[in-house]
Request: fold
Amino acid sequence: MRQRNAPFGRTLCAMVTPFTSAGTLDVDGAARLATRLVAGGCDGLVLNGTTGESPTTTDAEKRELIATVRSAVGPAVPLVAGVGTADTRHTVELTLAAEKAGADAALVVTPYYSRPQQAAVEAHFRQIADATGLPLILYDIPGRTGTRIAPPTMIRLAEHPRIIAVKDCSYDFLGTQKVLAETELAYYAGCDEHILPLCAVGAAGCVSTIANVVPGEVAGILTAFDAGDTALAAELQSRLTPLIEAMMASDLPGTVTTKALLNALNLPAGPVRAPLLAADAETTANLLALYEALAAIGCPP
Reply:
């Protein structure tokens, strides 16, 4: 059995935030969805991330979601709270609130839109790490933020005792390998198509969006890989490719496709908030057909 540094578990789900038909936070739905995900194979949950519609939820809703899920899943399941904003002061406030609400770690994205220089990026993360007792997961997703966490910056930040992990959506395998070679940071694949490739170079696991609907199948990739059965792990990753493409590589955000499929399965999700728009009937039918094809095969042993 291969051992890896996985401080928050291996299979983390970037959980959607369920809303009622009226558009308010669905507390009961959030509790039911979180419980289902843990029972289905997720050993950690990421709340209030982009998939959880963090740009359009209030600070109070973010706190309530963390407290609700903590109560639902108990103290043993790692909860990671997305706290990233374009404002360092606001990010510190959200981090402290998440800690008080019961989060085990904070996921902090690079400040977006303002495109700070690397020295400013580093200072931003250090200020947040210095302000909290929570461990931090740095979120590197330049396609959304406009700014990389450059490998030299990441290596310097790894020296901070509370900066211990990375959610990697950089699409830079060489840069990732450089950081893995020089630090003890735990890397989590943030793109579902990269789960197995990143694990092959030393990642700890994944923060998966499609795990909202297929948690067991996602966990199966990591279970097979850890057991040394790379052929099975590759087969399982390949098996998920059509669903990954439909949910994550279409013209629609992953939040939209995930909620469409969850709603079609009568699972907690509800509407998306503007400016997002719901998926149309044709898209939803295609997603459901792909899900049913996977369900017919069954979860890996």
Q: What stands out?
A: The domain at 11-227 is CATH 3.20.20.70 (TIM Barrel). Strands lie at 11-14, 44-47, 79-82, 105-109, 136-140, 163-168, 186-189, 205-208.
